[in-house]
Amino acid sequence: METLKSDSGHELTYEEYLIDYDSWTKEVAEELARKNYVVEDKLTPEHWKIIEFVREFYRENCRGPSVHQIGKATGFNSRRICELFPCGTVRGAYRLAGLPRPPGCV
Description:
The protein is mostly helical. The protein is built from five helices and two strands.
């Protein structure tokens, strides 16, 4: 499997998903957010609310949550979630939360 290194030295897949979930840090999330055009500078408290929920959900369920589950847990509607993560939930929230790319995701 071809791998890359983040600027902070974390190992990533060629699609820039963190390889080791346990090596995730807020700094790598910030770096990936800028690199993937989610934000220009810093993640907002709204971003962090979603990212933290996604990480917790994954830890408990071994899979990422749906947009509906994210909305129900955070109080954000799907439109707001899409505004915060314009590249999509998987390419945005999952990637920044350190989750692996789900199988079958294009």
